[in-house]
Design goal:
single chain; 189 residues; alpha/beta; Rossmann fold; two-stranded antiparallel sheet
């Protein structure tokens, strides 16, 4: 089972989530893909994701993009799960501070407000140091205009790392890695 965790202001309709869903459906693996709209609250998001983890027959693999990578790290540490982190946020309570106030979801157009209390929730689930690098696969592009990829490379030292020159925060070469992501997750029909 793959649980895909989207980023801030993103949604299950994002390119990466949609392409992975489609790729898995084409291979008869659609029932092993999960992605839901997560709220702005880290605690609210954890409740939804942890409820889904509890319903899995076998340990799922987490795929987290940006803020979703921050969430995936906390959950991977808590539940001893594998995680693919795509241009992940390393210090969400710092990187999202400039976004305090009203925001709009890029995919569904819904408005929401990011508050200092939300930043406190991000701070509360920070993983200062990963315990088992072998459970992670970090995927970053050096042209990420939102987050400095070097912070992730440093935080996930010892993990499998795919560092690609150029690109941007969307991880432009996502489609090139879909088969490998499914293999890493161990998903089979």
């Amino acid at each position: 089972m793959i649980l895909y965790l989207h980023g801030f202001r993103s949604a299950p309709a994002s390119h990466k989530a949609s392409r992975l869903r489609q790729f898995m459906e084409e291979r008869g693996l659609g029932s092993q893909f999960w992605c839901e709209q997560l709220p702005v609250s880290a605690f609210g998001s954890m409740t939804i994701i942890e409820e889904r983890i509890a319903r899995c027959d076998t340990p799922p693999t987490l795929i987290g993009s940006s803020l979703g990578g921050y969430y995936a790290t906390w959950l991977a540490e808590k539940y001893d799960l594998k995680a693919v982190l795509v241009n992940p946020s390393v210090l969400s309570y710092v990187s999202l501070e400039p976004y305090l106030g009203e925001q709009t979801n890029m995919y569904n157009g819904e408005s929401f407000v990011l508050t200092p209390a939300h930043l406190d929730e991000f701070r509360a689930i920070e993983v200062k140091r990963i315990s088992r690098p072998e459970r992670y696969w970090l995927m970053v592009e050096t042209g990420d205009e939102v987050l400095d990829y070097r912070h992730a490379v440093e935080k996930y030292a010892g993990a499998r790392q795919t560092v690609l020159e150029g690109g941007d925060h969307s991880f432009t070469r996502w489609d090139d890695y879909l088969e490998q992501v499914i293999e890493f997750a161990g998903v089979r029909s």
